[in-house]
Amino acid sequence: MPNTKVNKILEEAYARGAEAAKNGKVATYIPELGKADPADLGICLCLPDGTRYEIGDTDKRFTMQSISKVVSLALALEHCGPKEVFSKVNMEPSAEAFDSFVELDLRSNRPYNPMINSGAITVASILKEKITINALLEYTRKVCLDPDIDFNEAVYKSEKDHMSRNRSIGYLLESKGIITTGVEESLDFYTRACSMNVTARGLANLGVVLAMDGIDPFTGEQLMPRRIAEVVKTIMLTCGMYDGSGEFAVMVGIPTKSGVGGGLLSASDDRLGIGIYGPALDEKGNCIAGRPVLEYLSEQLELSLFDKADIVDALRKAEANERKKAEKESLRVLRHRGVKTFLPFNVKKDK
Ligand code: GLN
Predict the structure, then answer these.
(1) CATH number of 4-301
(2) Does any ligand 1 atom lie closer than 6 A to the CB of residue 32?
């Protein structure tokens, strides 16, 4: 049953996002992405019992872009284990843009994290040795609970024709011995992964799967090992919004990953998943509507990882129950001893 309170909150979040979208710009460095409508906006929430709340363009398809870094990382961890993956890619936030190679060139022999391009191209180079790109597609369909996800050929070709920067990163990785075989194949795997066509609804599904530590809310099946979901969420929180991750964590407090196609994937731990589509971007390449939308939802629905209001309430209730039990017990003892007592108002007389 639709909950009107949640729907009202969603409407207000949408209005705030739509206002912010007026100040954003769609990505054009991949020409095909420039065709998106900057006014598009869709928000979907998916709860652990499978209930969804949606508003706007929630079933419009768009390319996953950097959100694919989340599924690639999860699958690389599953196939290769954390030791191998993190020997090649670090897990530290980066202060540079998503397609920067400054830190990699000057400061480190390991990409800073798997959420920026240098890290994700490295993950692709590991993954391509173990699985085919179609296996990654199948896995993405599974964890997004969306069998209709496919590659967007037009966006894939458009990016392949305009990828000098990623190609530079690929060859820099090779020059440092981080990619040892097939730079072009790694770039192709990475670009194909970015071109998977998803919806905000599918991202909300993936969000709740992550929020519930890998469990499919509809079937109860464990789709992803628990520990992998935990690692992925942690890296989303610290690195998912690139060089805007710190401020985003403070203001929103929900592990989130963005993509230049306009998508946002959020996993509010133990609570719910959120998928957003809004192709108007801010200067860091993140969906510009996302920040006001998620800030509002986080505040209204207590979604921040650090919001303990519900736990505090539960503790208070438990304390009150304990107190009631103790009062009853002392009355019982006193009565047993034949002492006449006056019952406090909040304790009902035993029958
Ligand atoms: N395919 C894009 C790129 O490599 C993904 C970037 C993004 O979504 N931030 O540039």
Answers:
(1) 3.40.710.10
(2) no
DSSP string, 51-62: -EEEEESSS--E
Cβ of 117 closer than 6 Å to ligand 1, yes or no, is yes
User: Of 63, 66, 287, which is best to mutate to test ligand 1, by the most ligand atoms within 8 angstroms of its C-beta?
Assistant: 66
Question: Going residue by residue through the chain (351 aa), what tens digit of pLDDT does each one get?
Answer: 467 899 999 999 999 999 999 999 999 999 999 999 999 999 999 999 999 999 999 999 999 999 999 999 999 999 999 999 999 999 999 888 898 888 888 888 899 999 999 999 999 999 999 999 999 999 999 999 999 999 999 999 999 999 999 999 999 999 999 999 899 999 999 999 999 999 999 999 999 999 999 999 999 999 999 999 999 999 999 999 988 999 999 999 999 999 999 999 999 999 999 999 999 999 999 999 999 999 999 999 999 999 876 655 666 677 777 777 777 776 666 566 554 443 333 333 333
Closest-CA residue, ligand 1 atom 2, reads: 65
Give the whole-angstrom CA distance, residue 290 versus residue 262: 9
DSSP-derived letter for residue 242 is: G
Q: Which atom of ligand 1 is nearest to the CA of 194?
A: 1
* Mutation choice for ligand 1 from 117, 121, 165, 256, CB with most ligand atoms inside 8 A: 117
AA identity, residue 111: P
The CA distance from 258 to 22, in Å, is 19
Mutate to test the pocket of ligand 1, among 63, 72, 159 (most ligand atoms within 8 A of CB): 159
Residue type, 222: Q
Q: List active site positions.
A: 66, 69, 190, 242, 260
Residue 264 token pair:
């946002």
0.85 exceeded by the pTM? yes
Atom 10 in ligand 1: which residue has the minimum CA distance?
99
Is residue 336 classed as helix, strand or coil in its secondary structure? helix
- Could you give the C-alpha distances from 239 to 58, 67, 171, 207, in angstroms and in order? 25, 12, 23, 16
Could you tell me if the CB of 152 is within 6 A of ligand 1? no
Distance from the CA of 117 to the center of ligand 1, in angstroms?
A: 7
Q: Taking the domains of the chain in order of start, what are their residue ranges?
A: 4-301, 308-351
